[in-house]
Amino acid sequence: MTDISQPYHPSPSAGRPDDRHADTTDFGFRDVPLREKKSLVRNVFDSVASKYDIMNDVMSLGIHRAWKKIFVNELGPHPDLSLLDLAGGTGDISFGWLRGGGGPAILSDINVSMLTVGRNRALERGLVSGLNFLAVDAEAIPLADNSVDRVSIAFGLRNCTDKLQVLREARRILRPGGRFLCLEFSRVQVAAFAPVYDAWSFHVLPRMGAAIAGDRESYQYLAESIRMFPDQETLADMMREAGLERVSYQNLSGGIAAIHSGWKI
Ligand SMILES: C[S@@+](CC[C@H](N)C(=O)[O-])C[C@H]1O[C@@H](n2cnc3c(N)ncnc32)[C@H](O)[C@@H]1O
């Protein structure tokens, strides 16, 4: 069990690109057999799917909406451009893209419970034209090379087992001149803010998860998985390793989250 009363000190492997030869990986602060991570993550999102959107608003005090707006603007929706939204869950990014005037979008996710919520939300909002749904593992995308203009992944990469493979797949399916964008929690840049953020993450979030979603463990995993995710520079290096070019990032809310961008030249 993790002692959350102690300051967080990343383990030597925290934030490093996945070791493809290792037979264990992180699931929050736990080390689990590599092959088990996907089903553990699936259980988390099966459990939270119906409360996912309300929990996002409560946990982030609504700030995730502003981050996603900036992210969608960065994607630059245009009728002539297509989007594959990886780990798209309940659809916020795909919906933002379509509302912004973007071309055909595929809302994809490995988890059918999350996609089902997304499909129902799309129907409620009348967002059906130009939107397709695909149940897919971001590590093995069933699309042709050079077939889409934009690939997005928002708060999804953290949950994938082999993150480098996701980045390689994203690059493979992008058309030359296409752009990959990742929105993810990152490393807080303001040291004075870290204790408050830690207290919020490890004390408040799991309690909110228990009270609102009846699921403390999933929100404990959420807080832990954020700390285990590569920091800004490490993720930028992984994107370069995957073959993306002109890699850059911008911090949001002092580094609580970051948007990483890379191009296929
Ligand atoms: C925190 S949610 C993000 C949903 C949405 N993008 C958003 O920003 O609200 C993370 C999503 O990643 C999905 N996911 C986890 N592992 C995945 C994988 N290997 N391939 C595709 N999706 C995955 C989960 O099912 C979940 O819907």
From TrEMBL:
**Record-level Gene Ontology MF annotations:** 2-methoxy-6-polyprenyl-1,4-benzoquinol methyltransferase activity; demethylmenaquinone methyltransferase activity
Q: Which GO terms describe its biological process?
A: aerobic respiration; menaquinone biosynthetic process; methylation
Q: Which Pfam families match?
A: Ubie_methyltran
Name the pathway it acts in: Cofactor biosynthesis; ubiquinone biosynthesis; Quinol/quinone metabolism; menaquinone biosynthesis; menaquinol from 1,4-dihydroxy-2-naphthoate: step 2/2
Where are the residues of the annotated region Disordered? 1-28
Q: Does the keyword Methyltransferase apply?
A: yes
Question: EC number(s) on record?
Answer: 2.1.1.163, 2.1.1.201
Q: Which residues bind S-adenosyl-L-methionine?
A: T90, D109, D137, A138
Q: Where is the composition biased (Basic and acidic residues)?
A: 16-28
Q: Which UniProt keywords apply?
A: Menaquinone biosynthesis, Methyltransferase, S-adenosyl-L-methionine, Transferase, Ubiquinone biosynthesis
Per its record, the protein catalyses:
a 2-demethylmenaquinol + S-adenosyl-L-methionine = a menaquinol + S-adenosyl-L-homocysteine + H(+); a 2-methoxy-6-(all-trans-polyprenyl)benzene-1,4-diol + S-adenosyl-L-methionine = a 5-methoxy-2-methyl-3-(all-trans-polyprenyl)benzene-1,4-diol + S-adenosyl-L-homocysteine + H(+)
Tell me yes or no: is Transmembrane helix among this UniProt entry's keywords: no
Name the job this protein performs: Methyltransferase required for the conversion of demethylmenaquinol (DMKH2) to menaquinol (MKH2) and the conversion of 2-polyprenyl-6-methoxy-1,4-benzoquinol (DDMQH2) to 2-polyprenyl-3-methyl-6-methoxy-1,4-benzoquinol (DMQH2).
Q: Which family is this sequence assigned to?
A: Belongs to the class I-like SAM-binding methyltransferase superfamily. MenG/UbiE family.
The protein depicted here goes by the name Ubiquinone/menaquinone biosynthesis C-methyltransferase UbiE
Q: Which gene encodes it?
A: ubiE
